[in-house]
């Protein structure tokens, strides 16, 4: 613990808050996330174990690297590589050209593909959880809702209360517990649409409004377009006015045919028809011009100054200072 020095505050994740610092012996910048264990007698909570397990298993350039896990008091400190920004901040503060959007989506899909090949679904993909390194690399972070799954367990039940609302697949909104890693692919489609429009694709303020916006945009689903729809747990709890769906040229104006097809192939009601990460990487969208921007030309640290430490975390900073004094 003596090798680390805290220098500032970063933000909060799904299950803990994050500080930044550096290794005093190597000079390497690090991020430190404090995870609280409320009852030690009951052991380490599943969500914390999932995050640690996922990060230890997933060694990939587009996934955040975990450096060390340090037990402390009623919790754990996760030491990870420090990344100065995230895709939400970048897309809000920088006007991204199509080639840069394409590179970010390619990096995201490379990370998701590796994640799914290792039988881990993230379940909370969103721009704020896609971190950007000082070299411009996109890395998937915040695995607090991640879950290991097996391909041969199609009937296994999971919690449907996952994923941030704007990126939550419709089967989750209808209460399904028998979903697959395709919920991550729906989220990728929502992220792509948001990058093209610079605004969320389905910005609901409640779960019901979220579902209403999805149905209004994509059209009212049927048993033909979504087999098993009527069997979803919450299907009969609410009805919506019928919708023919919107024209995609209105949903994503100024986008090419292949760009529209790429997004449409991800935000599909029937999860079996959604592109997998491997299929998405090979979509014609990535082959048409412009080509994905070279990494060397992607936004770098000097362009990410807006990603300064978040406000209202002085108390957290003081607490981390006390942790280091205790050690």
TrEMBL record:
Keywords: ATP-binding, Kinase, Nucleotide-binding, Serine/threonine-protein kinase, Transferase. Residues 4-286 form the Protein kinase domain. ATP binds at residue 38. Its EC number is 2.7.11.22. SMART domains: S_TKc (SM00220). Belongs to the protein kinase superfamily. CMGC Ser/Thr protein kinase family. CDC2/CDKX subfamily. This is Cyclin-dependent kinase 20. It comes from Nicrophorus vespilloides.
